[in-house]
């Protein structure tokens, strides 16, 4: 017999925002700029005829946005003065540790703001010797600590007490190593983004590029909800935000929402009413290590699809969902992220042809949201 | 040092070694930095508490070279003043320069320290 | 002061006979000197009031002897001799056990550390730590041994700034260890919530400070019970 959870379902949070891309106070730029590490982008385009073109463009841009996986990088390498001068202070560097669970292992990340963040276990923290704070989600006896090192100041140079202590702790005290996902946007167009991989290869480390995994699913004769950007709660004329959210999730999971399957054992979900018939719906899923450059590009493409079509081929709305890493130490900006029973942190843009959008921000239990 | 410990057994051997080491350490430390008598005092204090806990009898030579009040090593001319006086009988006065406490040792012709008596060396 | 006239300024006691001095190196004799001038000078510096120090009266190279002055004999005061031990308040007032944090030198403590190594060699001979059973016995001895003069390192600590502190132990109190590091810094580290590491004969002994909070002298007779957890 199944035992019930003591506190019921996991306490997740969903934040809804309705705005327009033309609004100067729109937060879409801020959200995408500060969502440093994105794992997956799911694009749902009903009524779209040129989604195949989109797929082609995505495979083209993959060559430009190169991300690397480097195995067994010692952390003191990230504090190396040469590395800081070349990659941290110039351009934008995004680094995240891979194959480490945020709730049980040590994790590391570097942000474009020039901060090195170490999310470490209690044992590691007690042996390492660097000052840090207990995790925001810890109880009376913290099990995880966060060490934040600012790499950008000029005072962080060899010969100074602070730098020497950090280097000694990371190198001689505990030789921590991680598998890192790295992406670097150079500040100058003449410099190639792959110079970061050359740097690590010169240190004798194994560098491999991270390929994108693109999956496309076409569904014919799908029933799609009728949505109006001004109508947020469900009425007779249009579905509300909650119904749209459920439908998007069901489509992304590949659940069959047709009428005949309403009594299905797996799912009893059906398309919310009022709904319209769509001849062809494209569900595109791209997985990899994405930085804000890529996510902004993807949003632009989806907006193009939705906003630029003429009356005949009108696409009323489309959506793109950006899933963050479950094991990332931050969700958005410097807000701490953890894994409790789930580790979701995702942002979903539902864009309309009149340049309005609905933004859903979903967070898990161990997440901070405004 | 309590030489009668030879009959005691190995249980206390570590305690004797510790006391021995602390005494030497106090000497070394005073030699190294004569301007810091605190270290020397601290070691002698530790030595005394170890001896108290294990109820160890120390050789009178060692006891006489330590000031009872402030636990300072008494080195004549350096940290203490030693004078011979007479008042009825002759005695030696050792005064500690740090705390000012005074010890008097009368000169008894027939006086023997316990360790110098043959009875002390007999197995009990 | 009849005694002073017979001494030279250099030495208080007469030296060894020349034959021993010449063969000193063969006998393994090390020259040790505790110069009277050093000790007396430092004593004067500590105890003279400030105005007399300014008048340069601690300079003992010029000594004036007044022959015409008669010195009054002090009466022998019985009452002042009654107290034999210092009370805690007097002790704190005199600061008998406080080590000044400045002007300490690591190199001055090295001879002490050498003496400590010899002492540990006697307590735990290096030949005896070969088997695991012998190592256990050695652990028991370390618990009762003297740590002052030894080299300890803070291996783990709840407070990260103490981690990595390594030096010669100058003082051990009930709750703290006072180290002097190789950069001549005096660091006082609390025993609570720290784990210390001691290296001896190729083995590293770990001391859990939280369970070690006993005065140095009392530690040799204390029986330590096993604790449920060694977590900090």
Overview of the molecule:
The complex is a heterotrimer of chains A (370), B (124) and C (232). By secondary structure, chain A is an alpha+beta fold. Chain A has 8 helices and 15 strands. Chain A folds into 2 domains: 13-64 and 212-363, no CATH class; 68-209, no CATH class. In chain A, the strands form 2 sheets. Chain A has an 8-stranded antiparallel beta sheet with strand order 7-8-6-5-4-9-3-10. Chain A has a 7-stranded antiparallel beta sheet with strand order 1-15-14-13-2-12-11, with helices on both faces. Chain A starts with 12 loop residues before the first strand and ends in a 7-residue tail after the last strand. The model of chain A has no long low-confidence stretch (mean pLDDT 87). Residues 1-7 of chain B have low confidence and may be disordered. Chain B is α+β, with helices and mostly antiparallel strands and 124 residues long. Chain B has helices at 13-32, 37-53, 60-64; strands at 80-87, 89-96, 102-106. Chain B is flat and about 40 Å long. Chain C is an alpha+beta fold and 232 residues long. Among the domains of chain C are: 17-52, no CATH class; 103-219, Roll (SH3 type barrels), CATH 2.30.30.210. Helices cover 30% and strands 16% of the residues of chain C. Chain C has helices spanning 2-6, 18-22, 24-27, 36-47, 50-54, 88-94, 106-123, 132-144, and strands spanning 151-157, 166-172, 176-180, 186-190, 194-200, 203-208. The radius of gyration of chain C is 24 Å and the shape is extended. The chains are: A alpha+beta (370), B alpha+beta (124), C alpha+beta (232). Chains B and C meet through helix 1 and helix 2 of B and helix 4, helix 7 and strand 2 of C. Chain A: GO terms for molecular function: ribonuclease MRP activity; ribonuclease P activity. Chain A: InterPro entries: RNase_P_Rpp40 (IPR013893).
């Amino acid at each position: 017999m199944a035992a019930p959870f003591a506190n019921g379902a996991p306490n997740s949070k969903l934040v809804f925002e309705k705005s327009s891309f033309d609004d100067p106070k729109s937060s879409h730029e801020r959200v995408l700029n500060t969502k440093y590490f994105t794992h997956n982008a799911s694009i749902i385009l009903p009524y779209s005829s040129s989604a195949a073109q989109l797929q082609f463009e995505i495979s083209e841009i993959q060559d430009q946005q190169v991300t690397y996986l480097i195995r067994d990088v010692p952390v003191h390498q990230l504090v190396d003065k040469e590395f800081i001068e070349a990659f941290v202070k110039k351009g934008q560097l995004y680094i995240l540790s891979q194959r480490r669970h945020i709730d049980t292992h040590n994790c590391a990340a570097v942000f474009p703001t020039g901060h090195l963040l170490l999310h470490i276990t209690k044992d590691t923290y007690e042996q390492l010797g660097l000052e840090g704070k207990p995790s925001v989600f810890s109880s009376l006896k913290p099990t995880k600590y966060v060490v934040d090192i600012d790499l950008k100041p000029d005072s962080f140079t060899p010969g100074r007490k602070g730098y020497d202590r950090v280097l000694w702790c990371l190198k001689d005290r505990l030789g921590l190593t991680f598998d890192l996902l790295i992406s670097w946007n150079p500040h100058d167009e003449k410099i190639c983004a792959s110079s970061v991989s050359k740097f690590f290869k010169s240190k004798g480390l194994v560098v491999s590029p991270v390929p994108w995994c693109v999956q496309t699913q076409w569904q014919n004769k799908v029933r799609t909800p009728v949505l109006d950007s001004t109508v947020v709660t469900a009425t007779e004329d249009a579905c509300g935000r909650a119904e749209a959210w459920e439908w998007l999730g069901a489509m992304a999971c590949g659940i069959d929402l047709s009428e005949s399957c309403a009594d299905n054992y797996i799912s009893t979900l059906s398309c919310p009413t009022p709904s319209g018939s769509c001849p062809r719906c494209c569900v595109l899923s791209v997985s990899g290590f994405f930085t804000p450059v890529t996510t902004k590009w993807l949003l632009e493409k989806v907006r193009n699809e939705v906003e630029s079509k003429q009356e005949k081929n009108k696409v009323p709305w489309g959506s793109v969902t950006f899933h963050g890493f479950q094991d990332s130490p931050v969700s958005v900006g410097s807000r701490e992220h953890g894994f409790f029973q789930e580790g979701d942190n995702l942002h979903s843009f539902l864009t309309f042809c009149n340049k309005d959008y609905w933004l859903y921000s979903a967070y898990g239990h161990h997440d901070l949201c405004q | 040092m309590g030489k009668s410990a030879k009959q005691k057994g190995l249980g206390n051997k570590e305690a004797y070694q510790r006391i021995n080491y602390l005494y030497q350490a106090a000497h070394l430390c005073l030699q190294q930095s004569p301007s810091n008598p605190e270290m020397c005092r601290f070691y002698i204090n530790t030595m005394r508490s170890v001896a108290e806990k294990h109820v160890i009898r120390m050789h009178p030579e060692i006891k006489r070279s330590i000031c009872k009040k402030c636990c300072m090593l008494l080195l004549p001319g350096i940290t203490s003043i030693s004078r011979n006086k007479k008042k009825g009988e002759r005695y030696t006065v050792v005064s500690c320069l740090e705390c000012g406490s005074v010890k008097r040792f009368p000169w008894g012709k027939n006086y023997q320290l316990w360790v110098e008596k043959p009875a002390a060396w007999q197995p009990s | 002061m009849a005694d002073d006239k017979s001494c030279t300024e250099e030495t208080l006691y007469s030296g060894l006979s020349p034959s021993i001095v010449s063969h000193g190196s063969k006998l393994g004799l090390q020259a040790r000197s505790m110069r009277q001038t050093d000790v007396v000078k430092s004593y004067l510096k500590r105890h003279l009031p400030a105005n007399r120090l300014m008048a340069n009266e601690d300079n003992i190279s010029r000594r004036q002897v007044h022959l015409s002055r008669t010195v009054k004999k002090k009466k022998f005061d019985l009452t002042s001799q009654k107290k034999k031990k210092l009370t805690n308040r007097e002790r704190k007032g005199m600061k008998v056990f406080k080590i000044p944090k400045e002007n300490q030198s690591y190199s001055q403590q090295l001879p002490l550390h050498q003496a400590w190594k010899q002492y540990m060699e006697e307590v735990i001979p290096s030949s005896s730590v070969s088997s695991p059973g012998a190592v256990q016995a050695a652990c028991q001895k370390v618990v009762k041994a003297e740590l002052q003069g030894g080299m300890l390192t803070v291996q783990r600590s709840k407070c990260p700034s103490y981690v990595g502190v390594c030096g010669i132990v100058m003082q051990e109190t009930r709750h703290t260890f006072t180290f002097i590091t190789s950069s001549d810094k005096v660091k006082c580290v609390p025993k609570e919530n720290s784990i210390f590491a001691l290296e001896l004969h190729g083995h590293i002994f770990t001391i859990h400070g939280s369970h070690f909070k006993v005065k140095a002298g009392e530690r040799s007779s204390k029986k330590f019970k096993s604790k449920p957890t060694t977590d900090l």
